[in-house]
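forwarding from the other thread:

> can someone predict this with flavin mononucleotide?

sure thing
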Amino acid sequence: MNNIKKNISKYWDYQLDNLLDQELFNQTIKFHQSGVYKRKNCDVFPYSRELLTWLKNNEFSDNIPNHFSSELKLEVKAKKFQNSHRDFLGDPMSKKDFDSIIYNSFGRDFDSGSKRYPSAGALYPIVPLIYILENNAIEGLSNLRGCYVFDTYALSLKKIKEWSTEEFNDFLSVLNTSNKQIYSNFAIGYAIDLKKAIIKYKQRGYRHALIEIGLMAQALREVLVSEKKGLGEFCWSGFDDNALTYLSGLNPRLIPISLIQWFGYKMKGK
Ligand SMILES: Cc1cc2nc3c(=O)[nH]c(=O)nc-3n(C[C@H](O)[C@H](O)[C@H](O)COP(=O)(O)O)c2cc1C
């Protein structure tokens, strides 16, 4: 280990509050909150008929300015990429596969301190929350259900939230899985530590945070493919933001969950 600092998460925010621009922090919270979904109060739906027609013509297409002066052809064969997958097996996952997925996607290289995905200023303001939604979801283990954070130095998952039956039902309802209870026993929640995101780069730090979520989600997607175990994932933004963050044991004002990504063994033939 060269320039590795120890895990300072126990007291890292003591100094931060003195350095933070509180006005900017409030603005960032407000801006973030302007995009949240709230139960029974979402101004996106219903989509108009005109919009639905437009969507039909524009999904799976690129926006290409048509004022190009020449064209260079690529000598490649079109291939099938691993795309999103929505049907997962409920069978327990092997501990080896689970550990490998979490470490390879979100872990650190102990020599450099780096992770698989880049982060502006090496601050890593996005906390990947690991949801295990079934007590026996990993072979040989029990009592697993809960929301965990990954300690990349201790190489352990720390459970930050357990649910009573009533709370769990509430949690599922704010995940908004409509007709399904859950898609998989496993999901990641990407939570933005807003203070950490903006302290150095100000407004631009919020942009960096959203970029980092994208990089992390893609890191997980690529890792699942590379494991060659028939694993898949899909991203999900149809949740009730503040309720979900609260029911994950976190403060929605300070560290809002901004994307969910389900993953697991793919159901064959789906
Ligand atoms: C930020 C983000 C949010 C998404 N939210 C949802 C969602 O709420 N529900 C859903 O079914 N799919 C969601 N998706 C998945 C997209 O629908 C999917 O990627 C798209 O249809 C393209 O399909 P493919 O990934 O299989 O190529 C989301 C994807 C991203 C990147």
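Residues 83-84, 234-238, 259 surround flavin mononucleotide (CB under 6 Å). thats all i got for now
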